[in-house]
Amino acid sequence: MTHPAPATDHSATVEAAVLRLTGVTLHLGHEQQQVTALDAVDLDVAPGELVAVTGPSGSGKSSLLAVAGGLQSPTAGTVHVAGVDLTALKEHQRTAHRRRHIGYVFQHANLFASLTAREQLLLTAHVAGRLDRETRQRADELLEAVGMGARADHRPDRLSGGERQRVGIARALVLAPGVLLVDEPTSALDRARARDIVDLLAAQTRAHRTATVMVTHDHEILDAADRVLTLRDGRLS
Ligand SMILES: Nc1ncnc2c1ncn2[C@@H]1O[C@H](COP(=O)(O)OP(=O)(O)OP(=O)(O)O)[C@@H](O)[C@H]1O
Fold this sequence. Notes:
The chain has helices at about 10-15, 60-70, 90-100, 115-125, 135-145, 160-175, 190-210; strands at about 20-30, 35-45, 50-55, 75-80, 85, 100-105, 180-185, 210-215, 225-230, 235. It has a single domain (about 10-230), classed as Rossmann fold (3-Layer(aba) Sandwich). It is globular. α5 (about 135-145) runs antiparallel to α6 and α6 runs parallel beside α7. It is built from 7 helices and 10 strands. It is of the alpha/beta class. The chain is about 35% helix and about 25% strand. A 6-stranded mixed β-sheet has the order 6-7-8-3-9-10. Strands 2-1-4-5 form a 4-stranded antiparallel β-sheet. This is ABC transport system ATP-binding protein. InterPro entries: AAA+_ATPase, ABC_transporter-like_ATP-bd, ABC_transporter-like_CS, ABC_transpr_LolD-like, MacB-like_ATP-bd, P-loop_NTPase.
């Protein structure tokens, strides 16, 4: 019987982090108008960990999510997702890796008006070529887990803002991503619903062992995070 070679320390730590940004710098704009949106950012997020990133307007929060999600290539540095450096991939490979390993939750749930809650999840699975029995079952389980089981056949116009956000969270998890990137999830919600949603995100992060990064202005929800980091002028601390 053969045994696999032991992993080197380096590859083991990359895998352990799930999401790892190393020395990430992002310049935006041109020449005199150039802005350093991210400045030598290092960030490791482990499975089951919820990291909140806060910071003033223009500090680089959206840029951080865009780079971590492979939507924007950094000017310098590397972004490892599930052990693979996104910056070393060709565009089509990056898209495939992103679909497989990253889930996104947006400020507004961005649901399709004509689809029911369940169909929002099934469409995501379909686009990824994963509309199989297992994924259908996972979709129903997730809708149950986010408290939307009884409303799985409702379209967005029959759901509240908080309920739509719940569907958005379930949709982000339907392909079992290792990384969850969350952009201002509570900004469209009242206090009580904001609390519900962030508690749900924390619970789902733990239940599904995702490495979750949540960008937020909302200081009242920071207690739900395992770690709180601050961006100032593109520097993370
Ligand atoms: N396309 C662009 N060209 C040039 N500069 C840009 C561009 N997009 C963003 N910036 C600048 O990069 C910096 C970081 O912007 P970013 O949107 O990441 O900040 P943010 O913290 O998400 O802000 P907010 O909280 O207001 O959404 C800002 O100074 C912004 O003006």
